[in-house]
Amino acid sequence: MQLLEKHKNIIDFTLSSLWRRKGKNISLIVVYTFIIFLVASVMFFTHSIRKEAALVLRDAPEMMVQRLVAGRHELIPVRYMDEIGKIRGVQSVKPRLWGYYYDPANGANYTLVVKDELKDSVGSVRVGSGVARSLLISENAAIPFKTHDGAYLVLKVKSIIPSESELVSADLVLISEGDFRRIFAIPDGYATDLTLNVRNSKELTTIAAKITQIFPDTRPILRDEILRTYDAVFNWRGGLVIVVLSCAFFAFIILAWDKATGLSAEEKREIGILKAIGWETSDVLQMKFWEGVVVSLSSFLLGVLLAYLHVFFASSALFESALKGWSVLYPEFRLTPFIQAYHIATLFFLTVVPYTVSTIVPSWRAATIEPDSVMRA
Amino acid sequence: MLERKSHLFLLFVTISVLFWGLMFAHAVYRQRADEVLFQQKRALVGWLGLTDLCLFTDARYTRNPSMADMNTPFQDYPLSFEHFPSGSLLSLPPHLRAHAEDR
Amino acid sequence: MIEVDNIRKVFNMGKPNEFVAIEGVSLSIEARKATALKGPSGSGKTTLLSILGCMSRPTSGRITLLDREITSLPERFLTDIRRGTFGFIFQQFNLLKGITALENVMVPAYPSGEKHSALKERAMSLLSLFNMAGKADSKVEWLSGGEAQRVAIARALINNPSTIIADEPTAHLDTKLSGELMGIMRALKEDGKTILIASHDPMVYESDVIDRVVEMRDGKVTHA
After folding, report:
1. Residue pair C48/C6 in contact by the 8 Å Cβ criterion
2. Whether the predicted pLDDT of B100 surpasses 60
3. In chain A, which residues have their Cβ closer than 8 Å to the Cβ of B88?
4. Is B87 in the same domain as B65?
5. What is the C-alpha R_g of chain A?
6. Which of A6, A179, A303, A347 is an S-S bond match for C113, by CB 3.0 to 4.6 Å?
7. Residue A239 predicted with pLDDT over 70
8. From the candidates B10, B11, B63, B66, which should be mutated to test the interface with A, based on the most A CB atoms within 10 A?
9. For chain C, which domains are there?
């Protein structure tokens, strides 16, 4: 009880002391909170996207076979299917027709996907909610598609894919094969790529190796590799993410440096007075500890909460321009929250602990001076 | 009771911790509530044979990173720089790195 | 009550600006009496005062408090003793800026973990004693010299010490306030406290409150 009261007293004094330079300390907390907010937002966002991908892409095709010519993705001859189908362990091979369509009307890119089910509904399409938003259309609207020969093919919107699945379907246009070939002039014996189903998933790599043997111009891609792609997305080692994190890190170093390079004459004098009126060295250091904790803990608690609100209630609004890039069509990042306690704990140890330490350590020397120095000042 | 500054601070910490509790609870709640949604999305992916999330629609290799080939980012010219902003957010899919090593 | 035996204090030992503040001082301070240290600035009064008040240690020599030798006591115990035995009033008052008068009075007792309400009451009654109750919530920057002086005295009394030590307390006070100060000292002495004042102000060392004058010059006691 006495210990608690002592700490409350010291916190009282620390808060009075911080309040004395309230401009400086409030801006310190604001900046600190903002840094933590940024880092935590990036953490929440990237982790949730990874979880989303891991959960949602589990039923992606087991294997895809692409054809590469001169290092570029090329159309694959459908007759390749015959040879591939003969490989032991392959259950089925199907051709996939899909491609990108650039719409000059709004400057957006759509992903056109052919689905057998639609072959009876020539002349109509199903579009993703991102497409609908971008064109400001609803059901039964008509979209003119510019074909390879400059003509226009007008297709009716049969339905819009619900926006709950935006993260996989925002830019999709589901189309019949006939319409697809009209738009893109893909010759009859060709497809975009092939998808495979195998009997035993353990054989995937062997089968992939055999395929490259038979057709050296192909590249098989496994479901496993797809999933791992998204593990690496927004990897902290890449691109913009590391820029953001580095800025945050350096800003933080600057803050801590300001503390660590020693006390001002006024602070030293204050410590001298405290020692002269009866505070021990340990009491002074406890005060410095609380000084560090009050600032860093408050910022940490606030920053993380704000980051959570930002990412999961405001759809990461602040990252919008970075995420949007040059995309005209942009999914609403309504993510399901997945928090990793490990990340948060790491953030805590990388922010609160160093800051508190950098508040205590420079005061060590001043805290151990003989109190009488204050008498002769 | 609240005239002591230390009490104010402790109150602030307590309230924040409560909100943190809410935050975790909310996350768990949303995860459970969205399970149906995930099933639906998974089904859609399976039905359409999709391979990627729709995150960026500005370039082919950012729209379908798992399908990307190595040189599309430099499509204009062998020495050209990455020019799509979203490309700087994505790092190279691991299987492309592996394939490059095979060659 | 306090005895020093052949003490010597050297500052910046071994460095080019080495300086001997006091040399060969032996002195015995009597309890419940008021002693004045008289001498010009540079005579070592402040140094001796801080050694007597356990604020610093002598370079050599011994110091005894209530028949207990405290020369080489570890800092923790020394601070404990100092907190309970001595109340300091500094020349510059040395009040903590930016906080209220009441908080200033309470701060010396913070580390003891005493119950807040009890401490606050005691601090308020001390301030009332010096007619400062009305200014309890004022920031110290806004106090006049005399008011700050009284807050400094109240602060010195918060831990109920047996000895009051004051270093040039009248340096920033006019005649009237100096007289008031000596009046307060008289009252404290009557209360049973030991008083120790360093001053070169005749209003102090010639006052009838003072029982004994110790003269110093160039770091040595010239008359005890």
Report:
1. no
2. no
3. 238-240
4. yes
5. 31
6. A6
7. no
8. B66
9. 2-223 (3.40.50.300)
Residue C91 has pLDDT above 70, yes or no: yes
| Rounded Cα–Cα distance for residues C115 and C138 (Å) | 23
- CB A337, CB A312: distance < 8 Å: yes
Chosen for mutation from A1, A21, A267, A277 (greatest number of chain C CBs closer than 10 Å) is A277
Q: What is the mean pLDDT of residues A87-107?
A: 90
> Which tens digits make up the pLDDT trace of A108-159?
999 999 987 777 778 889 999 999 999 998 889 999 999 988 899 999 999 9
In this prediction, residues C45-55 reach a mean pLDDT of 87
Q: How many independent structural domains does chain B possess?
A: 2
Q: Which residue of B has its CA nearest to A50?
A: B53
Half-sphere exposure in the Cβ direction for B29 (13 Å, CA): 7
φ, ψ for residue A213, nearest 5 deg: -65, -45
B91 lies in some domain: yes
- What's the gap in Å between the CA of A189 and the closest CA on chain B? 20
Please tell me the pTM assigned to this model.
0.85
Instruction: Determine the residue type at C205.
Output: Y
* Residue range of the domain that includes B9: 5-48
Residue B53 lies inside a defined structural domain of this protein: no
Question: What pLDDT, on a 0 to 100 scale, did the predictor assign at position A190?
Answer: 92
Does a structural domain hold residue B55? no
For residue A161, count other CB atoms closer than 10 A to its CB: 22
Cβ contact A273–C96 (<8 Å): yes
Of the candidates A58, A113, A238, which has its C-beta nearest B91's C-beta? A238
Residue B101: pLDDT band with limits 50, 70, 90: very low
Q: What is the pLDDT of residue A375?
A: 59
For chain A, which residues make up each domain, given as ranges?
2-56+233-374, 61-230
Q: Which residues of A touch B60 (CB under 8 A)?
A: 100
Specify the pLDDT at position C98.
85
A225 min Cα distance to partner chain B (Å) = 6
Residues A200 and A204: their CA atoms lie apart, in Å, by 7
| CB nearest A276 (choices: C76, C88, C114) | C88
Domain annotation covers residue B37: yes
Closest partner residue to B91 (CB to CB) among A221, A239, A337 is A239
Q: Please write the tens of the pLDDT for every residue from A245-258.
A: 777 778 777 777 77
Same domain, B43 and B66: no
Say if strands A108-114 and A172-175 run parallel, antiparallel, or are unpaired.
parallel
On whether any CB of chain A is under 8 Å from the CB of B15, the answer is: no
